[in-house]
């Protein structure tokens, strides 16, 4: 009897590490949550990475869109999921941090509830208008906004998202006032400016470059400190004589999971992401989309995330004040 009991306990002890090492189990699908609407930049990247990771991991990788509340809905679902590696979520910074750093949003998760897997790419934000708009240059747009304070409508990718910070940062840098219009993601925001429902778009170059090359949008300025290799003829705000380089000027996108994943599981997922990033088709497609591949592993990602939280807090307060919150 005792011998059977000891044998059973030994098997249980061995089963824990084995389960992590055997991840993923054959036939067990992985849910990859995109906390944005379908068709946007993050969604496009997810659908590019998913089939390659599926091939590498040997199990289905299903992309599921869970938009809402500036990515808060999808992130909340992911943070509450079982930490077994079968739920992943795309994180967009600084928007992800803004959710739990703002007490008014009553987030059900915090930094400690999400495990960094890998940063995948980054993209500077830019200001753009419809190609048929009368704003041929950034200076013309700024002068028009100053002449009509609060009348020109500037879109965002969601309340307190990176696009929102970019919008407010541009207003501060140029001394103008726009009527801020929040959308649920980059795709609907671009649709709005193309349809004339807003005058100005604040979006990542990854979202804007296709439209810029097609001639449907005119990109007037890059919000980061450096010019974009994808839009080499577009000057930075600093190049136009304005301050740039705020927290919301560059978006960083990566994969995370519920906190508590076994180290071996994190490693397996991270390695799969790296393999996908090294795929020549991914490199070509991401370049076409205007995104710069940038790999940060779990430890580097974690340090980046913690540092960003510190920098974002004062910016968040400024954003709320400007919104009258």
The computed structural class is alpha/beta
Secondary structure tally: strands: 10
| Biggest beta sheet attributes | 8 strands, mixed
What would the principal axes of the Cα set say about the shape? globular
Distance between the termini: 67 Å
Percent range for helical residues? 40-55%
Specify the CATH class of the largest domain. Answer: Alpha Beta
Q: What is the residue-averaged pLDDT?
A: 89
Number of helices: 11
Radius of gyration, whole Å: 21 Å
CATH architecture of the largest domain: 3-Layer(aba) Sandwich
Q: Could you please say which CATH topology of the largest domain applies here?
A: D-Maltodextrin-Binding Protein, domain 2
* Beta-strand residue percentage: 15-25%
Low-confidence stretches: 4-19
What is the N-to-C order of secondary-structure elements (H for helix, E for strand)? HEHEHEHEHEHEHEHEEHHEH
Description:
The chain has about 325 residues and is of the alpha/beta class. About 45% of the residues lie in helices and about 20% in strands. The protein has eleven helices and ten strands. Strands 1, 2, 3, 4, 7, 8, 9 and 10 form an eight-stranded mixed β-sheet that branches. Strands 5-6 form a two-stranded parallel ribbon. The relative contact order is 0.18.
